[in-house]
Amino acid sequence: MLLPDLRQQVLDANLELVRRGLVLYTFGNASGINREQGLVAIKPSGVPYEELKPAHIVITDLAGKIVEGDLRPSSDLDTHLELYRTFPNIGGVVHTHSEFATAWAQARTPIPCFGTTHADYFSGPVPVTEELTTEEISHDYELNTGRVICRRFAKISPDEIGAVLVAGHAPFTWGKTAADAAHNAVVLEYVAKMAYYTVGINAQSAPISRALHDKHFFRKHGSSAYYGQEKK
């Protein structure tokens, strides 16, 4: 069996979405990539999470050709592949239809950074894409979903904001590993819920200052980070 460790990591990331209440039935998917071999491991399409085993995880190349697996890969495979091709530092991708993040996507509204919880994980507001055109929806829909995400990040660092809202659709997140991508999906849902409540309490709420935002983001990320313990 190819890439047993990556298969297990991808399975664990998919199951984390279930444990955290981010998916219903067969909604959502997680994937991971082995950059050295140029191979991607992804959840099979429509298989219930409670039935998933490492052997069910489908292995494809970066062109979408199935390398190993008897099941069809997630229907969102082409979106995942486009993100891997365009964002060279990511190692995992997650897609959910989690309640609050999806609500912001359906409202076609970025999630502002109203507080330091958001700032701890994302260096700016969580962006929303432009809407896909009728042509983009009709032909190569999943690939074009990836492309519209990548266009949105033309001037945004995907390494500093590991999440996006696809307009009218739902969120995608990513990270250095499949586990990191799942972690970001959980955090995204949490900050989406808090932002929703914040606007409900005070519709005139403003984002926190850039200074406070940067302080919280960079104390956890980058060369000057000091949050947590040193890695040995």
List the helices and strands and how they pair.
Elements: H1 4-19, E1 29-34, E2 39-42, E3 58-61, E4 66-68, H2 77-86, E5 92-95, H3 99-106, H4 116-119, H5 134-138, H6 141-152, E6 163-165, E7 171-175, H7 178-201, H8 210-218
Antiparallel strand pairs: 1-2, 1-5, 2-3, 3-4, 5-7, 6-7
Task: Name the poorly predicted regions.
Answer: none
Strand content: 5-15%
Number of helices: 8
| H and E string | HEEEEHEHHHHEEHH
Structural class: alpha+beta
Just give the CATH class. Answer: Alpha Beta
Order of the strands making up the biggest sheet: 4-3-2-1-5-7-6
Radius of gyration: 17 Å
Helix content: 25-40%
Specify the CATH architecture: 3-Layer(aba) Sandwich
* CATH homolog superfamily: Class II aldolase/adducin N-terminal domain
CATH topology label: L-fuculose-1-phosphate Aldolase
What coarse outline follows from CA principal-axis ratios? globular
The average pLDDT score comes to 96
Instruction: Tell me the span between the first and last alpha carbons.
Output: 32 Å
Sheet with most strands: 7 strands, antiparallel
**Number of distinct beta strands:** 7
* Oligomer class: single chain
Q: Please, how many domains?
A: 1
